[in-house]
Every structure is written in C-alpha cells, then in structure tokens.
Amino acid sequence: MPLSVTGKANIIINQLCEEMMQHWINLKQPGDKETVINIAAWMRHFTADFIAVFTAEKRMSFMKYYYQKLKNEPLTEEILDNEKFIEKRIDPSLKRPMTDDEIRGLMVDAYVAGTDT
User: Fold this and answer.
1) Quick one: which of 6, 113, 108, 101 has its CA closest to 56?
2) How far apart, in whole angstroms, are the C-alpha atoms of residue 28 and residue 21?
3) Is the pTM of this model over 0.85?
4) What is the C-alpha separation between 2 and 57, in angstroms, rounded?
5) Which helix (H) or strand (E) holds 77?
6) How far apart are CA 37 and CA 34, in angstroms?
7) pLDDT in tens, 37-77
8) How many helices (H) and strands (E) does the chain have?
C-alpha cells in the first residue's frame, strides 16, 4: 500500500517534530533571551531517527542523545571528553562533507535494503 494512503510517514514525522521541539524548549537556560540551535545537526539526527523508525520500526533516539550531549549533564562529560579526543585524532579525509551523490546513495540503500543489512 502506498505511503500516501497509510499516513504512517506523517504520523512518524509529527511525533519526531514534537519531540525535537520539546528538546529545543528545554535547551533554553533560565535568564537567556535566546538559544542558538544548529539546525543542520538537529536535522541529521531527525533524519536518522525517521529512517530508523520508518524502515526498522525501532526507535534509536538519536535526537535524545544529541540533546543530552548539549545539556552538558555530569554523566555526559566523559562522553564529551572522548569526542574531543577523537576529533583531534580523526583522519581529515573523514571530516569532509558528503557529496550529493553519496547522500543519495545512502538514502536509496536505507529505503531499499533497510538499516540492518
């Protein structure tokens, strides 16, 4: 049955948008007039969550983990230190942005084969 008829994609997107907006609201610190949000990073996590739920019907909570990283909770300090360590030693060729063709290929693979293959 086509996705446009089932409405499954719309339901998943609405749920994920609500979750993401709640995380954004919670990022605002008391006394701050504004909060800067890196929309590109959030969209990557949103897309990963959507693909996981849509293809495997399992929540991976990428947005939740990213939110916890941004909150700088004491439990995540060790994770942040490890990420800084990795960033210092990562191969520069891995830091380049992906090309449109690479992104298209990965999206086709995710939709056709799923994420667990």
Assistant:
1) 113
2) 12
3) no
4) 17
5) helix 77-89
6) 10
7) 778 888 888 888 888 888 877 777 777 777 776 766 555 56
8) 6, 0
CA distance 1 to 61: 27
DSSP for the chain, written as a single string: --HHHH-HHHHHHHHHHHHHHHHHHHHPPTT-S-----HHHHHHHHHHHHHIIIII-----HHHHHHHHHHT-GGGHHHHHHHHHHHHHS-GGGSSPPPHHHHHHHHHHHHHH-S--
Q: Classify burial at 50, counting beta carbons within 10 Å of its beta carbon; exposed 0-12, middle 13-18, buried 19 or more.
A: buried
Residues in the chain: 117
Residue whose entry in the numeric block shows the structure tokens 């667990």: 116
Q: What are phi and psi of 97, to 5 degrees?
A: -70, 150
Distant-in-sequence, close-in-space partners of 42: CB < 8 Å, separation ≥ 6: 20, 24, 63, 66
Q: Looking at this protein, which amino acid is placed at residue 30?
A: P
- Please give the single-letter amino acid code of residue 18: E
